[in-house]
Design goal:
This protein has 342 residues and is of the alpha/beta class. It folds into 2 domains: 13-272, Vaccinia Virus protein VP39 (Rossmann fold); 288-341. Helices cover 35% and strands 18% of the residues. It has helices spanning 28-37, 63-80, 110-121, 143-148, 174-179, 183-188, 217-227, 243-250, 262-272, 296-303, 308-318, 328-338; strands spanning 13-17, 21-25, 42-47, 81-91, 94-96, 106-108, 124-132, 160-167, 200-202, 233-236, 254-259. The strands form 2 sheets. It has a 9-stranded mixed β-sheet, sandwiched between helices. The protein has a two-stranded antiparallel ribbon with strand order 5-6. β3, α2 (63-80) and β4 form a beta-alpha-beta unit. α11 (308-318) packs across α12 (328-338). The protein starts with 12 loop residues before the first strand and ends with a helix. Bound molecules: S-adenosylmethionine. Residues 27-29, 48, 50, 57-58, 211, 213-215, 238, 240-241, 243, 258-261, 264 line the site of S-adenosylmethionine. S-adenosylmethionine (SAM) is lined by residues 27-29, 48, 50, 57-58, 211, 213-215, 238, 240-241, 243, 258-261, 264.
C-alpha cells in the first residue's frame, strides 16, 4: 500500500524516519501541501507556532504578513484533519520590550487574534487551557511600579500561555470517534490516574533543550493522552526539538513533523532514543477483583457500562464462533457465567 505520510523527496527532505516518527527538514508550507496531495489524514495537531519577531529563527515583514502565514498553515491543517478531530495550539500574547527609556513596551494580543483567525478558517473553538508557569519564569515588568506605586503604570508579570483546542467540524458526535477504535486500542488509550480537572495547568517551562523555545514534555504528554488514541497520526508543523514526537513515542502514537532548522531535528534524534514507550495491554482483560464482592445483578450492571464491542472482543476469546448480532445483555451474562475461567 502507498505510504500516505511520505513526501516527494525532491520537494522536501525526509531527515528522520523510524517507521513511526517522520521528520522533514524544510518549510511546512510546502510539506503540508504535499501531505494534502498524498491524501494524508491527521488525527491531531499539536504545535507551537514560531513567534512573531521575538526569537531569532524567522522574521516576518510585519504582523499582518505573520497572521496571513498562520492562516495559510492552519487552512491546510484543516484540510488534512479528519472530521471531528482536534488541533491544539500553544500560543501566547506578545511582549515587545521597550527600546530605550523614552519608549514604552508593547503587548500584541496574538492569542485573541489567533482564535478569530481559526474561526474564520472554519475551525470550531473548543477550549482555552491556561498553562500557568511559576512567577520566576516570567520577565520582570513591575520593577518600576514596585518603587513608584503609581496607578496606570502597573504592568503585571506574564506567567501564562494558552493551549487553544479547536475541532474540525463534524456532523457526528464525539462518541463516534471513540467507537471507531477497537476495544484493545480504546483500553490502551484510557487516561489512568490523576488528570487535570480544570483549565489551569501548572507546569514548569522546559529546561532540558538547547532550542530557544521548546515546550515541556509534561504539556505534550497531557495533550496527547487527553486528545488522541494509540496508533493515531499526530502532526507538528513547527517541530523544533521534537517535544511532540517524544511524547508520541511515550504514548505509542505516530508523528509527522516539519522543521526548517536541521540542528533542532538533530537535538530530537539524540533524545528520542532515550524515550521508553509506556507498556500496553496485548489482549483485552477484565480486572476480576472489581467483581469479586458483587451480586450477579451488580456484575452484569457493571459489565453493561463497557462498550458492546469490548464485551464482544472479550467473549470472542472464549467463544470464537460468536456472531456480532448477539445482544449486549447476552454478552454481559455470558461473561459473568465464564468469569472464573476467563
Ligand atoms: C516555537 S518553536 C517550536 C518548539 C517545539 N515545540 C519544541 O518543543 O521544541 C517553532 C519552530 O518552528 C520552526 N519554523 C519556523 N517556521 C517554519 C516553517 N515555515 N516550517 C517549518 N518549521 C518552521 C522554527 O525553526 C522553530 O524551531
Amino acid at each position: 500500500m502507498e505510504d500516505k505520510t511520505k513526501l516527494n523527496a525532491q520537494v522536501i527532505n525526509e531527515y528522520y524516519n523510524d517507521g513511526k516518527h517522520i521528520v522533514y527538514n524544510g518549510d511546512c508550507l510546502l510539506g503540508l501541501e504535499q501531505l494534502i496531495q498524498n491524501k494524508t489524514e491527521i488525527d491531531l495537531t499539536i504545535t507551537s507556532p514560531p513567534y512573531f519577531n521575538v526569537k531569532d529563527y524567522v522574521v516576518y515583514e510585519n504582523y499582518k504578513k505573520y497572521l496571513d502565514f498562520l492562516e495559510t498553515i492552519f487552512t491546510k491543517i484543516l484540510i488534512l484533519t479528519k472530521p471531528g478531530r482536534l488541533c491544539c495550539i500553544n500560543i501566547s500574547n506578545i511582549l515587545i520590550i521597550r527600546e530605550n527609556r523614552n519608549s514604552e513596551s508593547k503587548r500584541i494580543p496574538l492569542s485573541f487574534h489567533f482564535v478569530s483567525l481559526m474561526e474564520k478558517i472554519g475551525w470550531e473553538f473548543l477550549e482555552d487551557i491556561i498553562w500557568l508557569k511559576p512567577e520566576g519564569a516570567a520577565k520582570n515588568r513591575n520593577g518600576g511600579f514596585y518603587q513608584h506605586r503609581q496607578p496606570v503604570a502597573y504592568k503585571p508579570n506574564v506567567v501564562n500561555e494558552y493551549i487553544f483546542v479547536f475541532k474540525k467540524p463534524s456532523k457526528s458526535l464525539i462518541d463516534q470517534v471513540v467507537r471507531s477504535y477497537n476495544s484493545l486500542d480504546a483500553l490502551n488509550s484510557k487516561v489512568l490516574g490523576n488528570y487535570e480537572r480544570s483549565n489551569v495547568w501548572k507546569i514548569n517551562p522546559a529546561t532540558r533543550s538547547k532550542h530557544p523555545a521548546p515546550y515541556p514534555m509534561e504539556l505534550t504528554d497531557k495533550i496527547i493522552s487527553y486528545y488522541s488514541f494509540v496508533g493515531d497520526i499526530i502532526l507538528d508543523p513547527f517541530f523544533g526539538s521534537g517535544t511532540t514526537s517524544l511524547s508520541c513515542k511515550k504514548y505509542s502514537r505516530n508523528c509527522i513533523g516539519f522543521e526548517i532548522h536541521s540542528e533542532y531535528i538533530d537535538m530530537f534524534i539524540s533524545e528520542i532514543k532515550k524515550v521508553i514507550p509506556n507498556k500496553l495491554h496485548d489482549k483485552l482483560t477484565l480486572d476480576k477483583n472489581e467483581f469479586i464482592e458483587l451480586t450477579k445483578e451488580e456484575c452484569i450492571e457493571k459489565l453493561m457500562k463497557h462498550p458492546k464491542q469490548m464485551l464482544f472482543d472479550i467473549f470472542k476469546d472464549k467463544e470464537p464462533e460468536i456472531k456480532k448480532t448477539v445482544s449486549k445483555i447476552y454478552l454481559a451474562e455470558q461473561i459473568h457465567n465464564h468469569m472464573n475461567d476467563m
